[in-house]
Amino acid sequence: MQGTVKWVDDVMFVGESGSGHSVVMDGPLELGGRNHGLRPMEMLLLGTGGCALFDVVTMLKKARQDILNCRVELQAERADAVPAVFTAINLHFVVEGNGIKDSQVARAVSLSAEKYCSASITLATGGVAITHSHETVSV
Q: Pfam families from the entry (predicted)?
């Protein structure tokens, strides 16, 4: 995996992934930014959620669950000192679908947390307290 981050001006940067996709990162107004993009730590948090949600959706599809909507709500805490690292993150999955089985959702969330999600497992091995929860809405 590779990527490049280029400085644009002030505290704005453009990152390009090895797959050719780009994203703008920018700082808040009070630090000279224009607030035109995500903060780098927000990207780290969203990337973790995306990695875990990818796992959960993939597993539920393989289990032939009829998913209509699925999201992960992220809550993170950061240290008050520099560096302001993540100290805790909760990933709360909300899965909605026709006849969705809560046991299948629980299993998918557990497997993502313990075996498949490279992002959350990387953060956990670095000392971040990662927790997972879920709710299942069967329609």
A: OsmC
